[in-house]
């Protein structure tokens, strides 16, 4: 039997259920689902408490040095990009001057 067949409200004798019986069974299934969800959340919280991760301490001077190194690399890339744009502008002016 799959999960859906297990959860379908049916009487054991395969007789049709009354509306009241059907509603009671559905309510019971919903209560069971709610209890299972509450238990799952409780277990997850307990697990999270037991397996807390600790952040490693980073020395502020090391962090500053790393930040400065990244800034220098970015500045170097930006300088090359500016140089490339300037060269392209000069090439466009030369083309326009000799063609036009």
Automatic annotation (TrEMBL):
Residues 16-35 have a biased composition (Basic and acidic residues). The chain crosses the membrane at residues 78-99. Residues 1-35 are annotated as: Disordered. Keywords: Membrane, Transmembrane, Transmembrane helix. It comes from the Bacteria. This is Uncharacterized protein. It comes from Levilactobacillus bambusae.
């Amino acid at each position: 039997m799959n999960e859906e067949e297990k959860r379908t409200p049916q009487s054991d004798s395969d007789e049709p259920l009354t509306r009241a019986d059907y509603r009671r069974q559905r309510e019971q299934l919903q209560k069971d689902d709610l209890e299972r969800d509450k238990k799952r959340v409780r277990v997850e919280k307990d697990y999270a408490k037991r397996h807390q991760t600790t952040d490693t301490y980073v020395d502020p001077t090391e962090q500053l040095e790393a930040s400065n190194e990244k800034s220098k690399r970015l500045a170097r890339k930006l300088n090359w990009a500016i140089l490339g744009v300037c060269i392209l502008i000069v090439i466009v002016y030369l083309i326009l001057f000799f063609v036009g």
